[in-house]
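**User:** You know discrete backbone vocabularies at least as well as I do. Would you mind producing a protein record, from residues through to fold? Write it directly below this note and I will take it from there.

**Assistant:**
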Amino acid sequence: MSKRVELHPASIKHLKKGHPWVTKDRFSSNFPQKDSFLWAKTAEHGRAILINDPSHQMIKARLWSLIHQNDSFNENIFKRELKERLEKSYNFRKSLNLDRDNYFLCFGEADQLPGLFIQVLGTRALIQFYSDFWNRYEKEVSDFVLNYFKKNDIWLQKRNKNQQKEFYCLNRKNKDDEFHITEFGIRYKIKLNKSYDIGLYTDMAAIRNRLKKNFENKRVLNLYSYTGAYSAFALKNGATDVTSVDLSKKYISWLEENLKENDLMSSHESIVSAVLPALKKFKADNEKFDLIICDPPSSSSDGKKRTKAIDSYRELIPLFYDLLNSRGEVYAFLNTHSITRNKFETKIKEYTKDSPFSISGHLKLTEDCPSLKGFPEGDYLKGLKLLKK
């Protein structure tokens, strides 16, 4: 069932320490294209069972298990282990008693289900394949979900490097879908098969809830606001007013739909603009805020140039300082696998040396989005709380 491959010594070291990926190198570049499973020797008596991922640009295989050389592995064993791991992830989420309709039923590598994510969205479930490997086991995964969510519409999304929408409803003839879910008492519109993303980032939900006591009587600026989850959340939790800035008219319109759904429009201002010129205009108009939320896309364009999120903070932070009231705060996020938490914090410290801020807290994935020890790429959503000195 599986074909033997040779691994780079560094890959073996990382796998044994808990890292679940084999990335592209001179060894993995020679992996076979058609085999679903691979195995490699990791020690005198140790073996790694790997999921083959030939179509991925950088991740060429993902760890399924480390076994002894005398242990068996075949199709039936894999299917049994798949079911056991899905059951474990389901029972863990059930134990959390979350106050929201949206949560991750399984969270990929952190649940020992590499490249497989499943979101529950109220009366829908969304299976997301980040590896083409899972196409072969679509039935096993969808059958498991249907067993626990018999009344749900089950959707499948194949996440691809080109960010082209690729959704399928597995148990209905729906071509697309629009509906509302409730997260911490706020209703948000979800749209399936309308664009690559669905309108709400469930991985940010637990972080939002952790911050709920920090909005009372605050004037809030939400940058790269997308469909306004933080804008609605801030207003619902006592913000005096919120200004949302996003370059996309489509997302600002969606944001306003969400605010109207929750009767929160009266204390909100929408601005369709690139962030940097919007901040410069706020400064020229002597605007002041108590709290700035900044969650830039990993790479963005203002129509003239493309900027990486980490680099954008170099220009943004001095403007944050000018726009904040005394003891004002910034919640600065970075959403990428490729930059570690330590590097993000180092860069922010570098950018704040001339604009005095102190780091007053750290924000990270939690609850239904657990972390995996030895896997820094899984800690992709990083946040820092910056306090104006």
The chain has three domains: 2-73, 77-183, 201-388. The chain has a mean pLDDT of 95. The CA atoms of residues 102 and 272 lie 28 Å apart. DSSP finds nine helices and 21 strands in the chain.
